[in-house]
Amino acid sequence: MLLSGSGKPQFGEGNREVGEAPLGRPVWAAVGGSLMSLCLPFTGVATMKFKSPPVNSLSLEFLTEFSISLEKLENNRACRGVIITSTLPKIFSSGLDITEMCGKSMEHYTEFWRAVQEMWLRLYGSNMVTVAAVNGSSPAGGCLVAMSCDYRIMAENPKFSIGLNEAQLGIVAPFWFKDTFVNVVGHRIAERSLQLGSLHPAPEAHKLGLVDELVPEEKLMERAAAVMAQWLALPDHARQLTKTMMRKAVLDRLVAHREEDIKNFVTFVSKESIQKSLRMYMEMLKKRKS
Ligand SMILES: CCCC/C=C\CC(=O)SCCNC(=O)CCNC(=O)[C@H](O)C(C)(C)COP(=O)(O)OP(=O)(O)OC[C@H]1O[C@@H](n2cnc3c(N)ncnc32)[C@H](O)[C@@H]1OP(=O)(O)O
């Protein structure tokens, strides 16, 4: 991925555009930058694979590339669905990149948070069928990505966990993370899980309805393709209008309060007490390793 003078990422040399052949037939194409690979074969189902070691943290650059990739697929008539997964063993995504929220300027926090919002608005509001093939742990922002898809299939490894653990970091999940969570698991489970900042091992996540099914890891992509085929068997317009009906209120709420939400985030994350909590959390991660 190249960055243009405007600071907006552009897809550079060596990345073939997703597009249509002159006769309107879909072409096989691969786009994507350095942080995710993206393939759109003749089937019309794209596969997006996160590849940002060590843990697929959602940095500003990652989020921007993610949004651009989604926009490209969304605008491509040949693409009707996308399967989202990770190339890294054991990690789907470690959530928002904590270093983006530590020791930076107000301007940076503003830009970062706008990118988080943009990614969610595009993914949750996508007209495509979106299937998350969760092949590893998926805390916080990683869980948001999975929850924003239409269907979640997780590898049945109890060492992999998923959930909104923000409270454990001393931070609070914003209302639209919460709304997305409630829409997936219901109010009571979301309330308890959010307050405790729970990370649910895969079998528990399945029991709670946070993921729709568990499969052996080696069967994950095969099953995701089968689920995708099932969802794509319906007429697009009926499915899309139904999806909009189910998700519009939650999307509209963020759109209506977007600037206020950014201000809240910037004020919150700039507090010295919050900065201290985030620093301590990062130190804990490093200590745990050694
Ligand atoms: C108002 C604010 C609202 C904010 C809303 C959402 C917030 C978020 O999304 S905050 C992010 C929450 N994420 C987490 O709590 C996950 C933390 N990470 C982990 O639990 C583990 O790293 C994980 C299970 C994902 C992987 O474990 P390991 O395979 O054992 O890897 P390491 O723990 O050794 O990590 C490797 C390397 O990555 C750094 N790391 C991990 N997660 C993040 C992150 N989210 N952001 C930035 N950096 C991260 C970790 O510190 C290690 O770094 P080094 O020590 O320098 O190698």
Automatic annotation (TrEMBL):
A GO molecular function held by the record: delta(3)-delta(2)-enoyl-CoA isomerase activity
Pfam family, one: ECH_1
InterPro entries membership: ClpP/crotonase-like_dom_sf (IPR029045), Enoyl-CoA_hyd/isom_CS (IPR018376), Enoyl-CoA_hydra/iso (IPR001753)
Cellular component terms (Gene Ontology): mitochondrial matrix
PROSITE patterns on file: ENOYL_COA_HYDRATASE
Pathway: Lipid metabolism; fatty acid beta-oxidation
Entry keywords, A to Z: Acetylation, Fatty acid metabolism, Isomerase, Lipid metabolism, Mitochondrion, Transit peptide
EC number: 5.3.3.8
Protein name: Enoyl-CoA delta isomerase 1, mitochondrial
Protein species of origin: Zonotrichia albicollis (White-throated sparrow)
